[in-house]
Amino acid sequence: MRYPESFTIAGRRISPPLVLSPMAGVTDSPFRRIAKRCGHVGLIVTEFISVEGLTRGNMRTHDMMRYTPEERPLAIQIFGYDEVRMRWAAEIAEEAGADFVDINCGCPARKVINGGGGSNLLRDLPQLRKILTEVKKAISIPMTVKIRAGWDDKSINCVEVAKLIEDCGASMVTLHGRTRVQGYRGWANWDLVREIKQHVSIPVSGSGDIMRPEDAMSRFETTGCDAVHIGRGAIANPYIFRQTWETMNGLEPYRPTPVEMHELLLLFRDYLREHMPEKGVIGRMKMLSAQFLRGVPNGAHLRTAVLRSQTVAEMEPLFDDYFALAEKFGIDHDLQCARDENAELAECGV
Ligand SMILES: Cc1cc2nc3c(=O)[nH]c(=O)nc-3n(C[C@H](O)[C@H](O)[C@H](O)COP(=O)(O)O)c2cc1C
After folding, report:
1. Higher pLDDT, 298 or 114
2. Which of 75, 103, 201, 316 is deepest in the core (most CB within 10 A)?
3. In what helix (H) or strand (E) does residue 122 lie, and over which residues does it extend?
4. Does 279 lie in the same domain as 198?
5. Annotation marks residue 107 as catalytic
6. Minimal CA–CA distance to 269: which of 255, 288, 256?
7. Are 132 and 268 found together in one domain?
8. CATH number at residue 40
9. Do 242 and 262 fall into the same domain?
10. Residues 125-132, mean pLDDT to the nearest whole number
11. Cα(147) to centroid of ligand 1, in Å?
């Protein structure tokens, strides 16, 4: 099969059709730059940003909108309930230079639901319509929407919601095929992506459980979707976009050398330092290290030591030792994500 090389959102060509999925606490600007560096990310979506924080002048929330030019094309994702604040926040995102505004209708976190936003909107369609109508009126850049399958197994309504979304003038819909109640358990239902695709004419992207290039390829084949979002698979392996693009084009997927992986970790450190105070850097370094420092024989103790480090300076000689071992013995994994570990990450995320 010939895989799509690109897709189009309201006349704007996105190539390749591989999207870095929004992940709160993960896809901040330093991580997005790293993903982009590794290559072949067609579109980036920011982590979700609270419209309450944005419209009440919370500086930390505004800070979440910072990005560097290399991250574009970029969709800024917002979440909330009140249509006036949603509209206002969308205007702020447009002013910040976003290429698209993405509306979050999928977050399952209690705090978000209690405020009426995220996946709560899947069971309050009149409010969802109001929000989308207001946002659409207010901005001149395209509006996109990310949803879940429905609230629970008994109320799967994503096809109806996707039609509503199209009707309100959105330019793309993305489905993460789990219900709110399901959280991150089980598997995403990609049959629903295919169903949505049959019922709307705007581009449809699917999200859920793409951990290696073959997963993305089989989703394109079986659903006819226009794009795929990759989330946890990109934390485990930021090269996944490049490798997917290469595999889709019949090429041998790229395998980074230990030296490159070492350099990428240090680059991440530098980007983090540009973006946040030092005390925030260590936790974020541990996130990527936990994924990167796997698969080297006799390397486990170094990984553990990195994860116990109190400062970045403490980590650096451990990286040197780890990647020296990697050079000598090779890395015995394909950077593929340990699914259980990432499910845990999701549970503590959103
Ligand atoms: C830690 C974490 C944070 C997330 N934050 C967001 C978010 O801010 N907005 C959103 O629409 N989805 C969010 N998601 C959902 C992902 O974008 C994605 O739809 C989901 O993880 C399934 O895809 P995956 O298996 O490729 O990770 C988050 C997921 C994780 C694991």
Report:
1. 114
2. 103
3. none
4. no
5. yes
6. 288
7. no
8. 3.20.20.70
9. no
10. 98
11. 11
